[in-house]
Amino acid sequence: MEGWIKDWRQEIESQIWQMPPLYYKVWQYLKYSANYEDIEVPAKDGSSTVIKRGQILTTLRKIAEDVGWYERGVFKKPSPSMISKILDWLKKNDMITVEVVNSSKTVITICNYDKFQSTNQEVVNSLRTDCEHTYKKEKKYNNIINNNIYTSNESSKVVSLEKKISKGESKKEKYDEEFEKIWAGYRKNAVETLPGSKKEAYKEFKKLLKKHDIETIKDHIRYYLIDCKRTGTKTKQLVNFLKKEDFDTPVEELYESARRKKQEQEIKIRVLG
């Protein structure tokens, strides 16, 4: 692989920068692998497929192999299903499109490739202005519901690049302030999982507000995050937690139940000792 591409510094302020490292590695791999010019790829049946500038003809297994790494002398690579999950995330964030050519081959297109890799200075200047305008809108949110989960007073920085394009202008989902605080805290404190769909979680949150007051919802989320950290349990995605949690149970009962379980465990350990 030869040549170079343009890489934009603002990516360190984007949502993908906050995802697990493999997400960004796959994103960089796709940008590096994309064709700089149109090429014609012959097929076994004598036909051919034109892979355009900004596109890659590849497979999930090849991507997994190419983004692998060595750990203590042992080569490791992600599963094709993990690569598929990452590609789905990139699609949802309007970074790529994916077209399945046949049972094994896939054409991936980098969105706005010509714009980001343009050599036209006017286009570059226009893009720089757009980027600066977007990132000036980033917000800082307070820690989740001012609870005792955090040991730091720093606020959680949440940058969202989820955009809806309408008439050439970027439009973004709007959420109320209380939900933004909950989302930021849940995202920071979740154990070994991603928070899931923000939009779907917000829908469940609004449904719950019709039945329960905001403090009850906060208390249950606070207890759940603390309990997951205490037990090392993998956290559910926020939308699933909001759907399945029994908010009718007083949170005091949950804390008392956890206290009893801890005492029982300590007694068993003493007996075994």
Entry summary:
It contains ten helices and eleven strands. By secondary structure, the protein is α+β, with helices and mostly antiparallel strands.
Task: Give a verbal description of the structure.
By secondary structure, this protein is of the alpha+beta class. The chain has two domains: 9-118, Orthogonal Bundle (Arc Repressor Mutant, subunit A); 136-272, no CATH class. It has helices spanning 21-33, 60-66, 80-92, 113-116, 121-135, 177-189, 198-208, 214-231, 238-244, 251-272; strands at 39-42, 48-51, 55-58, 69-71, 74-76, 96-100, 106-110, 139-141, 156-158, 164-166, 169-171. The strands form five sheets. The protein has a three-stranded antiparallel sheet. It has a two-stranded antiparallel ribbon with strand order 1-2. A two-stranded antiparallel sheet has the order 4-5. A hairpin with a 5-residue loop joins strand 1 and strand 2 (48-51). The model is unreliable at 131-170 (pLDDT under 50).
